[in-house]
Each structure stands twice: as C-alpha cells, then as structure tokens.
C-alpha cells in the first residue's frame, strides 16, 4: 500500500476513534453545537460549565453554546425539533416512553449515577417516611407526574388526589406543616432552610429502592448516526469537565454559573458540590470502574424491570432502544481524578 493511502486511512481512523481533535481536523474549524440544560445554571450542571469555561470543548473541536432550561422546558420537543443538539434530563422513564411511541430520542450518558430526587417534609409532624406520607398533600411539578411519581404510586400506594401543584416556589410548603414537596438533594433543602429558618426532613428516594439515572444527556438518534465523532467529542469533553469540577478547582465553572444565573449564590453552589461528593451522586456505582457518565445494560435493565413491576410499561418493550453505551464506559478521564 502506498504511503499516501496509508496516511489517508490513518486520518480516517483518527476521525472515528479520537473524537474532538479529529473533529477539528475534519471540519477545519470548531463544530457549533447547542446543549440544553433542564434548569437555570446551577452546580448540578457544573461539569458542563467547567468544560466550557476551561476550554475543554474547544480542545475537542467544538464550539458549544449552553442553553439554560427552566420550569417549562420540554425535553422531547427541544431535541426532536432541533432546538438543541444535546439535551439534559433527569427522568429515564421518558426514554422508555419514547421507545413505546417510536420517538427517536436516546440517552448517551448518565452523569449522575443515582437519583438526587427527594421528598421534603416538616420535622415533628409524623411525615418522616415514605409510608407516612401516603395520603398526605405533596407538591410536585407537572413533569414529575410521569416520572418518580409513577414509582411512588406503584410502590407505596400514593394516589393522584395527594398532588398539589409545585411551581418551584417553597412558599406553599412553608405555609402548610402537613405537606411535603419534591426537590433535589442539592438544592431545595438548602433553600427551605434559609427561607424557613428550620432544617427540613429529607427523604432520598434512592435510599428506598428508586432505581434511576440522573443528568442524562439525550439526542436525536439521527445525530448519533450521522456525526458520531461530534457526539464522542462532546461526551469526552463533558466527562473531563466533571472530573475537573469535582476533583480540581471548580472556580471557572462556578464563575460562569453565577454569571448566567443571577439568582444563584456561591454558598448554594458550595453546598451542592459537597453533597454531590458526599452521597456519590456523580461518582459511584459503575462510574467508579467505568468513569463518570457511565451507563450499563444491567442498570438500565434494573430500571426497566422496576417499571414493569410497577405496571408502567409492558414486559416486551424493546427497552434497549432508549439508550446506547457506545460513547461512555471507556474509563475516559479517570486519570484526572485526584
């Protein structure tokens, strides 16, 4: 084989295998992509902002724009309509619903290995367990009705008449001592303690059998087929960003978060980072051996089996169509852990 032909083949292999740098070489300039988050900038998005602030996306040949989410963000619509290239979501169940409805949106990475979902109640009111909250008023968002609420109904016998609308404001919860509300371990308990001047009781659903992935990155399957090198570059840079954020200096990412979200505080960010590390939200389970962002067939099967047992989906659903592990589970970035 001639030397020039060998070089051409090696260049092509570099595009396929190396991700980011190959993207730059192939395109001649950074590839523009948009990443949508599920909420306003916060520590739960820290690794992504860290990757942007420290130039990791640029290093991998990408020009990334982060589009902040909010209370009414529609994950499926954002991805399916091409508003964003990559989208963050907290609910794996909707991916199974996509399979059921033949919607070509799939998960490619899970940056949180377990759910940080919590139910929050007032101390001293006899609402300290999931069993005790059965029949009590619980404030949940519209999206939660098709997420963890289905699990609570199937597992603990909750009913829809318990639901009170949650508009991401703690005031209704603070006004009713017999109520509970949804939240994330790293966010709402801190806010309630500051606003209500008491320490709320917090129930982490993951401690009670709730099988879940959080901080899932999803995209249209077409993008995965047509531009796998761009997808790999985004995931690799994001993984490096999360290791840098959790085990290095999170200052660059935090500065960008504070700039983007004027309601965020440095104190809340610090608390969220500490809790994320303390409870192993991002770096536990399979991530300890496969790297942050890891997903496995075994964990997805456990999620699916739980959903089937709760009669949420038929047992013959082709659940593997909702995700792929081809871009993760490669121990990428683990050398950055300190």
Descriptive notes:
- This protein is of the alpha/beta class and 338 residues long.
- Helix 2 crosses helix 11 (228-247) and helix 3 crosses helix 11 (228-247).
- The strands form 2 sheets. The protein has a 5-stranded mixed sheet with strand order 2-1-3-10-4, sandwiched between helices. Strands 7-6-8-5-9 form a 5-stranded mixed sheet, with no helix packed on it.
- The protein is globular and about 60 Å long.
- It is built from 15 helices and 10 strands.
- Strand 6, helix 7 and strand 7 form a beta-alpha-beta unit.
- The chain starts with a helix and ends in a 29-residue tail after the last helix.
- It has helices spanning 3-18, 20-27, 46-53, 56-59, 75-80, 93-101, 148-156, 171-175, 188-196, 221-226, 228-247, 251-260, 266-278, 287-290, 297-309, and strands at 31-36, 62-67, 86-89, 105-112, 117-121, 138-140, 163-165, 180-184, 201-204, 214-220.
Strand order of the largest sheet: 2-1-3-10-4
The structural class is alpha/beta
**Shape field:** globular
- Terminal Cα separation, in Å? 45 Å
Number of helices: 15
Sequence stretches where pLDDT stays below 50 over 5 or more residues: 1-25
